[in-house]
Design goal:
mainly alpha, 4 strands, 21 helices, single chain
Length: 503
């Protein structure tokens, strides 16, 4: 068996625990401010997490400051698991979610920015716990950006993302030549956008606590809300929903492009092929959804009612149909998972369309989950070029993306990823069905968990949650969330025998 540098792995786990514990203590301040009764539990959770982090830091002094690929895979996967295990403590110790299985599910859903929940009544949960819940989203969302921009390329599996993102890599533009400085600039952008949305939501009429929480959930494309009805609570306040729509679109866009746009270089948007398709897909799907909702569905505007009653030839209001259509298209494509209406009863056609959308994902280099649009673009281009290659077998016909030639290695990587994604989805659906869960719910649970979407279909539709899953179903769902969030290879490679063999 290959010798691993476990000291540096434990050292990095210690740093993550210190980071996590610090954010828990911030949630403790929220508990103190609102006097919501959860202060002791949160402080205990934060103190315990910080203590373990300090112990790991001191116990691994003198480690070799060199991390190799295999350690890198372990750091990424174990990092997310460690954050989720420690992140469950505030729920358990405060009594908000006493079950370890449920607390771990909620936490993993937070860090992977899935947004699936087991809470049946969110509004009775202490405000500090709701804040911590949103914080897990926010941490996980930025973690994914840093992972995609800085870590995956070093492991040799981020070439595709970097090709699309024009981020640090052998053939891309750089925000800054050093990874740490790149991550720092993206953190500032992430924080700035979160603050901007929170301010706009407050000015639009949302309470400041709700505004902060929803801003963190939006920019991370997470979807946790402070209301049982999610964003449908504000169905009678269109401005609030349009603000969230705008920031969902930004969150699903490559953050490197947004960084350059923030500096005044908007040409990056117009030149980027993935962004063009991302925009076209959103517009096209919204038009389809709007037309069908307008002619065949009636959207309730009651602030606590997210039911949509499908009824043929009933004419709804055009603006309402457009807003709900656009909102739910963005919520699913960007894998944010917010809910303004129950899209699963907007006619069978739209139900199938939203299921397919769960396999799209937004842009590479964004906080969105899913397959990512750039992969679809390259797979489709390569598929069409196969016709030309069949007619001209001796011709060299490369796939081009953003005017550059895509290497065969990247094409093979993308095809392998997509095939593996479908296999994991199929196995995931089968495992859910083995638990006695019906077909629609099983397929929806697998697609939503793997794509980090949140709301699914059947018993897990937008008007329900994941509390009905059996305990093993919740653990299986968290496994799919982790695999989908970390781009499959990062997690699954650890379970292969040659990963542990010596070179």
């Amino acid at each position: 068996m290959r010798k691993f540098n476990f000291k540096i792995i434990l050292q990095l786990m210690g740093i993550l625990l210190l980071f996590n514990g610090g954010f828990m203590l911030v949630s403790g301040l929220v508990s103190w401010y609102f006097n919501d009764g959860a202060l002791n539990g949160i402080l205990l959770a934060g103190g315990l997490t910080v203590f373990i982090g300090i112990v790991l830091r001191f116990a691994t002094k003198g480690f070799e400051k060199k991390i190799k690929k295999r350690e890198g895979y372990l750091v990424v996967t174990l990092g997310w698991v460690t954050m989720s295990l420690s992140g469950a403590l505030p729920y358990i110790l405060s009594g908000a979610i006493p079950s370890f299985t449920d607390a771990f599910f909620e936490t993993m859903s937070g860090y992977t920015t899935t947004g699936a929940s087991i809470l049946n009544d969110i509004e009775i949960i202490p405000k500090s716990i709701l804040f911590w819940r949103s914080t897990t989203h926010w941490i996980g969302g930025m973690g994914i950006i840093v992972l995609a921009i800085a870590i995956l390329p070093l492991l040799g599996i981020g070439g595709m993302q970097m090709f699309a993102a024009e981020a640090p890599g052998p053939s891309g533009d750089k925000l800054h030549p050093r990874i740490t400085d790149t991550a720092k600039r993206l953190w500032f952008l992430y924080f700035g956008l979160t603050l901007a949305e929170a301010v706009l939501l407050k000015l639009a009429g949302m309470g400041y606590f709700d505004a902060i929480n929803h801003a963190m959930s939006t920019l991370s494309t997470g979807g946790f809300s402070t209301k049982n009805a999610s964003i449908a609570f504000w169905n009678d306040q269109p401005l609030i929903q349009y603000i969230i729509i705008f920031f969902m679109f930004i969150a699903g866009t490559n953050f490197v492009l947004s960084y350059f746009a923030f500096k005044g270089d908007f040409k990056k948007y117009t030149k980027d092929e993935e962004f063009k398709y991302y925009f076209i897909i959103i517009v096209s799907l919204t038009i389809i959804a709007t037309i069908i909702i307008y002619f065949y569905a009636s959207v309730s505007i009651h602030p606590t009612d997210i039911q949509v009653i499908a009824h043929p030839k009933v004419f709804g209001e055009l603006e309402s149909s457009f807003r709900h259509g656009l909102f739910q298209v963005l919520a699913v494509v960007t894998t944010t998972g917010f809910v303004s209406a129950d899209y699963t009863i907007w006619t069978p056609f739209l139900t199938v369309m939203f299921l397919i959308m769960m396999f799209l994902g937004a842009s590479a280099g964004s906080t969105a989950g899913g397959v990512k649009i750039v992969r679809h673009i390259i797979m489709i281009k390569n598929g069409f070029l196969e016709f030309k290659r069949s007619l001209h077998p001796n011709a060299i016909v490369p796939v081009r993306y953003n005017t550059k030639t895509v290497t065969r290695g990247i094409v093979f990587n993308i095809m392998a990823f997509f095939i593996l994604y479908l296999i994991v989805f199929a196995v995931g659906s089968l495992v859910f069905s083995l638990m006695g869960i019906d077909l629609i719910t099983s397929v929806g649970a697998a697609a939503s968990s793997l794509g980090n979407v949140g709301p699914a279909f059947g018993d897990l539709s937008p008007v329900n949650n994941y509390s009905s899953l059996p305990p093993f179903g919740k653990w299986w769902s968290t496994m799919l969330m982790l695999c989908g969030r970390l781009e499959l290879f990062t997690v699954l490679i650890i379970f292969t025998p040659y990963f542990w063999k010596s070179n």
